[in-house]
């Protein structure tokens, strides 16, 4: 029985250095991927935060094209009562 076991016995001498380098390379690649994903999420969050703050600001409300002055109203031929009626 022992002779049969010895015949099928396979001794393997692994290259531990190469295996360790392969594992380390895989870990580094995974860390880089996670870092890229994290940066992408942070950039998306930053853009979303900017968009939200832009929506909360009053920049879009004060448009000079939509403004009218008292002089503009006085120069038009409408009375004040007609302008108030047109408002709503």
Can you give me a brief rundown of this structure?
The chain is an all-alpha fold and 88 residues long. Helix content is 70%, strand content 0%.
How much beta, percentage-wise? under 5%
Q: How many domains comprise the coordinates?
A: 1
Overall shape: rod-shaped
Quick one: how many beta strands? 0
Please tally the helical runs, counting DSSP H or I stretches of 4 or more residues.
4
Task: Give the SSE string.
Answer: HHHH
Please, what is the average pLDDT?
86
Main sheet record: none
* Helix content bin: over 70%
Question: What separation lies between the terminal Cα atoms?
Answer: 104 Å
Radius of gyration, in Å, reads 38 Å
**Structural class by sheet pairing and helices:** mainly alpha
Low-confidence stretches: none
What is the fold's blueprint, element by element?
Layout: H1 2-8, H2 16-56, H3 70-75, H4 80-87
Describe the fold and architecture:
This protein is mainly α and 88 residues long. The chain has one domain (13-87). Helix content is 70%, strand content 0%. It contains four helices and no strands. The longest helix is centred in the middle third of the chain and has 41 residues, at 16-56. The model has no long low-confidence stretch (mean pLDDT 86).
Which terms would index this structure?
single chain, 88 residues, mainly alpha, 4 helices, rod-shaped, Jlp2/Ccd25
């Amino acid at each position: 029985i022992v002779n049969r076991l010895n015949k099928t016995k396979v001794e393997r001498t692994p290259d531990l250095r190469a295996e360790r380098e392969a594992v380390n390379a895989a870990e580094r690649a995974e860390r880089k991927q996670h870092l890229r994903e994290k940066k992408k999420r942070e950039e998306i969050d930053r853009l979303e935060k900017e968009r939200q703050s832009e929506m909360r600001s009053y920049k879009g409300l004060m448009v000079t094209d939509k403004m009218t002055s008292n002089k503009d109203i006085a120069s038009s031929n409408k009375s004040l009562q007609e302008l108030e009626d047109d408002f709503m």
